[in-house]
Specification:
Blueprint lengths: L1 H18 L9 H9 L3 H14 L12 E6 L12 E3 L1 E7 L4 E8 L5 E9 L12 E6 L5 E7 L10 E8 L18 E7 L6 E4 L17 E4 L6 E6 L20 E6 L5
Parallel strand pairs: 3-9
Antiparallel strand pairs: 1-3, 2-4, 4-7, 5-6, 5-8, 8-9, 10-11, 12-13
The structure holds calcium ion (CA) (2 copies).
Length: 268
């Protein structure tokens, strides 16, 4: 019995994550089929081509303003999309230093009305990686598109590429700006933020040091090479090298050390 509850809870979580709703009656059959059977073949072929060209991820130079649109709404069948509003581009990559990321919303019937647009965390987090928005856009009759801009936060620390979502919702209910996300494959955009920072590598300046026992402290220089973005830490410790009788012993020949070394941004 308990197992059934857990199972149905997991199912609801899966549906919520994939479709923005946990009730099956709100999900379009075409959407469900795409999730279960994968993207249409045409799209997969295009994606593979893109991955092959970009070698899974483009090489971003520090400070480079870069944007690439990966998946366009035109690749989807009309039945999978929202009838009234939608995004043109459904997945894009932007460099961390792009400053502002612009997304376009299409008013498909060009009728007057309002639509909510807001961001949602995934692996990227608001305030750390981008500035969240939650706006209500009003289209006048005849107006086909509107854009919103999302500020991307540039820092010096290395981190993996991270995603957040921009989604459309219905602002015309009592829930207001917490309104339900619109149904359809083209009502959310995944934005991948590409990190442009390179932490470099840590090495000893001299891997072999001869130190006379008559001298006290042995100073060992550690350097950071190639790049020096952001703060990095490295652990270090002394270990005995087994050489039989000639082994230098901790507590006898040297004092055991185990600590953490921190390099600040640009410190080498
Ligand atoms: Ca950066
Ligand atoms: Ca960074």
């Amino acid at each position: 019995m308990e197992e059934d509850v857990v199972k149905s809870q997991k199912m609801r979580q899966f549906l919520q994550k994939k479709f923005g709703t946990s009730s099956i009656q709100h999900i379009e059959l075409a959407e469900l089929k795409t999730v279960l059977e994968g993207e249409p073949l045409m799209m997969r072929a295009k994606y593979r081509k893109q991955v092959a060209i970009g070698a899974t991820r483009p090489v971003i130079k520090k400070g480079q303003k870069y944007r690439q649109d990966h998946v366009l709404a035109t690749n989807f069948d009309k039945a999978m999309k929202n009838d009234s509003y939608g995004f043109k581009c459904l997945h894009m990559s932007v460099s961390e230093s792009i400053d502002k990321c612009r997304v376009s919303i299409t008013n498909k019937h060009k009728t007057g009305g309002s639509i909510g647009v807001r961001t949602r965390d995934d692996t990227a987090c608001k305030d750390d990686d981008y500035i969240a928005i939650n706006e209500i856009l009003t289209f006048s009759a005849g107006e086909a598109t509107k854009d919103v801009e999302i500020k991307i936060i540039d820092d010096h620390g290395w981190e993996p590429d991270e995603d957040f979502y921009v989604e459309l919702y219905d602002p015309n209910t009592s829930k207001g700006k917490d309104g339900d996300k619109l149904h359809g494959r083209d009502t959310e955009v995944r934005v991948t933020i590409l990190d442009d920072d390179k932490p470099g590598q840590i090495a000893f300046s001299n891997p072999n040091i001869r130190h006379a026992a008559t001298h006290s402290d042995c100073v060992i220089n550690v350097k950071r090479i190639h790049d020096a973005d952001g703060e990095v830490t490295v652990k270090y410790k002394t270990i005995e090298i087994d050489q039989g009788e000639r082994t230098a012993r901790a507590g006898v020949d040297f004092e055991k050390v185990e600590a953490v070394l921190t390099f600040g941004h640009n410190e080498t």
